[in-house]
Fold Phytanoyl-CoA dioxygenase family protein.
Amino acid sequence: MVDPAMVAFYRDNGYLLVKGLLSRPEAQAYREECHAVLGRLRATDPTWGSARELAGGATELRHCHDAQFYSAAFARILVEPRFTDVAAALMGTENVQLHHTKIFVKPAEKGSPFPLHQDAAHLPHTRHTVGAAIFHFDDAPEEKGCVRVVPGSHKQGPLPHIEEGGWHLPPSEWPLRAAVPVEAEAGDVLFFSYLTVHGSGVNTAAEARTTFLVQFRDPLDQPVDDVHRSRGQGMMLRGVDPVMPSPAA
Ligand SMILES: O=C(O)CCC(=O)C(=O)O
């Protein structure tokens, strides 16, 4: 049962940090799994062009989309009720459907920033129920480039983004420093609406920042455009899909 005050905070502010959703030992095991998966992948660096400008020098980001296809540990976390019950309560639905997942590792001393943006610019949907959950597998203080949010910005609806450099908001109007840092500890999970303006700074600390991002939606909420496909999209994480599309041929 999710505390109604948490839901009220999310509705007002567009984000919610759930402390200790995973235990520290669980987070530590997932941290090792993330680094092991990335070690097996020949990954490309997904740093946005605009992030390079923001950082003022060379930075690095390591990532893996659809991590549940590479390690069962990530399939388990997707249907973990400690996570899905919160996602359902925040959306106000019984049913939670997967959009996509990604591991992000911001390497020590040079982990790439993200300019402020709404995820809605990358994956627009008709009903705006889409949300993200960022699982923290190690501590993420401000110097590690923790996620920063603009509280209440989700109430503005979809905002125009600049395509060049990675679909972000104009930095002159939306400087990263204007967003509130949401410092987190290993095991904490940050939930936010895909309309909430967010980004993150450079990791200047001596340790990597390791996170797993799950983007979810109400199954009744459909994409506006066919712009963001992923292998696992449509998997039910909680409840049922009331729409029941035709079986795949
Ligand atoms: O993990 C971060 O620092 C931010 C990630 C983010 O903003 C995104 O994937 O949209």
